[in-house]
Amino acid sequence: MQYSDSYENSQNYSPQFAKYMEDLAARLFSRYPLREWRIAEVGCGKGSFLRILRKLGARSVTGFDPSFLGKAPEGVRVVKDYFGPKYRGETFDFVVCRHVLEHICDPAGFVRSIAATLKKEDTCLYFEIPISAGYMRAAPSTTSSTSIATTSPNRR
């Protein structure tokens, strides 16, 4: 599938999903020092989650999405491109990738590519995917999944 500015997949118009994103951001802020960290969102869509992170006090937020259309939310930098090796010079402390892996043909390769692009070895990675029985056979009764992994034991 080609992800261009004509692609639309926003769920943030749903009050329940908007509340979920706000609650998720609050949980991440309670667990990690996101106010001080440089944050990137791979597959940021329209920047809705980044906007919430800024509202909670994140100082440095960058989104990557080739389908981004419009003006970036205030205080948010959006790169209308795929996150990959050409961005190796950028430094991020926290990389979030929500509802993206299910669109990728080779999710493991995609995750390896993100990890290989990161300049800092101790960057904290957060992935979230909606689960269906066909996508994740190990958890057929689960409706969503989150995972936090760090590339260094020095991060919580």
Description:
- This protein is α/β, with parallel strands linked by helices and 156 residues long.
- The protein has a single domain (15-150), classed as 3-Layer(aba) Sandwich (Rossmann fold), CATH 3.40.50.
- The protein is built from three helices and six strands; from the N terminus they run H-E-H-E-E-E-H-E-E.
- The protein has helices spanning 15-31, 48-55, 107-117; strands at 38-42, 60-64, 76-79, 94-98, 124-130, 144-150.
- Strands 3-2-1-4-5-6 form a six-stranded mixed β-sheet, with helices on one face.
- The radius of gyration is 15 Å and the shape is globular.
Chain-wise SSE layout:
Elements: H1 15-31, E1 38-42, H2 48-55, E2 60-64, E3 76-79, E4 94-98, H3 107-117, E5 124-130, E6 144-150
Parallel strand pairs: 1-2, 1-4, 2-3, 4-5
Antiparallel strand pairs: 5-6
Q: Can you tell me the number of structural domains?
A: 1
CATH homologous superfamily heading: Vaccinia Virus protein VP39
* H and E string: HEHEEEHEE
CATH architecture assignment: 3-Layer(aba) Sandwich
Helix content: 10-25%
Oligomer state of the chains in this structure: single chain
Q: What fold name goes in the CATH topology slot?
A: Rossmann fold
Instruction: Report Rg.
Output: 15 Å
Task: Count helical runs.
Answer: 3
Q: How is the biggest beta sheet arranged?
A: 6 strands, mixed
CA-CA gap between termini: 36 Å
Shape by Cα distribution: globular
Total number of strands: 6
* Proportion of residues in β-strands: 15-25%
Structural class: alpha/beta
Output the strand order for the largest sheet.
3-2-1-4-5-6
Mean pLDDT across all amino acids = 80
What is the CATH first-level class name?
Alpha Beta
The stretches of 5 or more residues where confidence is low (pLDDT under 50) are: 133-156
